[in-house]
Write a structure and sequence with these properties.
By secondary structure, this protein is α+β, with helices and mostly antiparallel strands. The protein has 13 helices and 33 strands. The structure holds guanosine-5',3'-tetraphosphate. One of its GO terms (biological process) is regulation of translational termination.
Length: about 525
């Protein structure tokens, strides 16, 4: 059994937009030697290399629509960082990406504290008790009282916070951080944000050097640290791994300060690839047999080929170039000669991948989100969610002769999770559902750009969608007969109820108690 996977650290960053996710990602890539100078990776407002017209659109809008994967070595670890879209209209993508990680880094804006999206993402992490490391960012600004921030993490996010280092001053007076465990001050020196900074250390808060460094404030700071030691949680590895306690680091991503300390501990503490649940059994990463699941499909990463890449998390065994995989849903063995790996957004051919790694498979339409691949066994990994959309539009063609292209386009876009599509049973409408408004814009843009279809949206009287589940076929037939306007099939062929109002949904649920109306569906 290969133990190579044990140095893998596969994680994603969760944060509210503007907290500093992009900035900290870039600094991590500096430490991983994937870039030499920060400021070269895509910046929201900086000029950025667009790999397709569609991404041109995201550039114009200043949002990141797509997730990508970055792999880099750090110390003895091989780190896999899964990027997630920052805009909440694409949150489904983020939720699914979080099913493919073993830990998460939570970035909090020190001036703003715990914000909405962080709360939501934390809820998703909690579903699997994902261990979380926290980074309180922007210490170079006037932030909120760090004790208050810790309290907020505990009360709002319901997780114990254990500070590992403590900030000394803030804003213009930011002097550095004090490591509560090693009794070392890491001294802040501004202006080193673009490269790997020097790590200036002063040993001992009671030392003469510390007195010199902290000058006038030294007594206050010593007192504060005493207080912090008494009033906060101690770090506990077991509680961290159980998702019940988060180690908290303070720093400034922009100045690349505190990031290294966080990363050093991250590779040490964050879990190696964890076992995954499949329908019939648990799959452990050290198993000989290969297995993995697809959590994301991204279209047209290369505009010349108009191809789609399925992102697969390897859960056990080893991928080797040219190997045969069993595509469980369609029951076929396929030879994979050209899986790709990801380095700072660039694709590279992978020869080998182990549990925890992410590989990209070229998808010619046969792979869907949630698909499991194995070395032969009929396994089905669970827990990849699909959420009922919150917004609905009827989509209409400008040119009625293009119905086929429209259907094909919507089918593919729904398979890759860019939108959801519903076909009501009693008419020829096509209803498109999204979690956020921007998803509609992206779909219209891509239909035109990739499928040559010009479509317009019209309002439609749908409040929400629910997947119908039941063994009671009679009741299902009754529903179809009595409420013909409300029943549809989605892009994957699943029976769905389209409710016109909240009241309508409640009434239907009451009348058809034999049926389950689900707001989420596991893929
Ligand atoms: P996001 O991906 O989480 O949305 O955040 P991003 O890294 O883009 O950071 C949001 C803004 O916060 C950026 O400024 C960024 O420069 C700034 N920022 C990130 N980390 C720090 C920090 O440690 N200290 C300070 N003072 N600012 C920080 P912007 O003006 O919106 O963008 P830009 O023009 O700098 O690109």
């Amino acid at each position: 059994m290969s133990r190579k996977f044990q140095n893998r650290r596969t994680f994603a960053i969760i944060s509210h937009p503007d907290a500093g996710k992009t900035t900290i990602t870039e600094k991590l890539l500096l430490f991983g030697n994937l870039i030499q100078v920060a400021g070269t990776v895509k910046g929201k407002k900086s000029d950025r290399h667009a790999t397709s017209d569609w991404m041109q659109m995201e550039k114009e809008r200043g949002i990141s629509v797509t997730s990508s994967v970055m792999q880099f070595p750090y110390k003895d670890a091989m780190v896999n960082l899964l990027d997630t879209p920052g805009h909440e209209d694409f949150s489904e993508d983020t939720y699914r990406t979080l099913t493919a990680v073993d830990s998460a880094l939570m970035v909090i804006d020190g001036a703003k504290g715990v914000e909405d999206r962080t709360i939501k993402l934390m809820d998703v992490c909690r579903l699997r008790d994902t261990p979380i490391i926290s980074f309180v960012n922007k210490m170079d600004r006037d932030i909120r009282d760090p004790i208050e921030l810790l309290d907020e993490i505990e009360s709002v996010l319901k997780i114990a916070g254990a500070p590992i280092n403590w900030p000394i001053g803030m804003g213009h007076d930011f002097k550095g951080v004090y490591n509560l465990y090693t009794d070392t001050i890491h001294v802040f020196k501004p202006g080193q944000g673009h490269t790997i900074p020097e790590d200036i250390q002063v040993a001992g808060i009671d030392s003469e050097e510390a007195t010199e460094l902290l000058g006038y404030y030294v007594d206050d700071i010593r007192e504060e640290i005493e207080l912090v030691r008494g009033a906060t949680h101690q770090f506990d590895l077991e509680l961290f791994l159980a998702g019940q306690l988060t180690p908290v680091f303070f720093g400034t991503a922009l100045s690349n300060f505190g990031v290294r300390e966080m990363l050093d501990h991250f590779v040490q503490w964050a879990p190696a690839p964890q076992p995954r649940l499949a329908v019939d059994r648990e799959v452990t990463p050290g198993e000989e047999q290969f297995s993995g699941f697809v959590f994301k499909i991204q279209a047209n990463m290369d505009p010349k080929h108009r191809d789609r890449i399925a992102f697969m998390r390897v859960c056990s065994g080893r991928y080797q170039q040219g190997m045969k995989m069993h595509h469980v849903r369609i029951g076929k063995d396929i030879r994979i000669a050209d899986a790709v790996g990801f380095k700072a957004g660039d694709r590279v051919a992978v020869e080998e991948a182990v549990a925890g790694d992410i590989i990209g498979l070229h998808n010619h339409g046969t792979i869907q989100i949630g698909d499991t691949f194995t070395g032969g066994e009929d396994l089905k990994f669970t827990g990849i969610p699909h959420f009922a959309p919150e917004l609905f539009r009827r989509i209409r063609l400008k040119d009625p002769l293009k119905t086929k292209q429209l259907q094909k386009g919507l089918q593919q876009l729904s398979e890759e999770g860019s939108t959801q599509v519903f076909f009501p049973l009693n008419n020829n409408d096509i209803v498109v559902g999204a979690v956020g408004q921007l998803q509609f814009d992206v779909v219209a843009y891509r239909l035109k750009d990739e499928y040559g279809v010009e479509a317009v949206y019209e309002p439609v009287n749908v409040y929400t969608a629910r997947w119908i589940e039941s063994d009671d076929n009679k009741k299902i037939e009754e529903l179809k007969r009595k409420v013909p306007d409300g029943v549809a099939v989605d892009g994957g062929g699943h029976l769905t109820y389209l409710a016109s109002t909240r009241v309508n949904l409640a009434l239907t649920e009451e009348r058809y108690q034999e049926l389950q109306f689900r707001a989420t569906r596991e893929l």
